[in-house]
């Protein structure tokens, strides 16, 4: 990929002079350095092309005014940088879907909000995003009933949710607790708080931020591509 707006600021270990110095100490290190740089460039190009293909499939109606818009260019550069540092194709598809849906909703004027949502996707693993999507499916199947609070609603599915996570993601219950704490820090998940009779803790629900993000990546959630 050429050194343009997309790749400026994308940094990896080979940009570290200490690492480059260590490579030079290896017999044939200079060749290794060149090969590693070429492979890194190839990987970045492959990932960027996945993003471009996804954006093309999104059928964006781009005009010259839009392409010259500071907000559009800023969002595109931020999304591209996140893309070339992402290993999983599924996450690149999510980044493209967020970008496309934001564009179609004419939301790039809320650039701070876009950056926050982009950062949330960028920071989480595909497994963590899939766990959120799984919890989403249970919440959708079990709406709050009359004279029932959200904790009581979770009685209908929480045990099954935990068992499904254990089976599908090879996580035991202690490991899942750690994942849920991380998801809580992301702002997409929140634990039930307050004094509830016969409640020992450990359960939670999807936050308003999750449903805001869900609006933009709904296709991936409903199609099960994450």
From TrEMBL:
Q: Give the protein name, as stated in the record.
A: Uncharacterized protein
Query: What organism is listed for this UniProt entry?
Result: Thalassomonas actiniarum
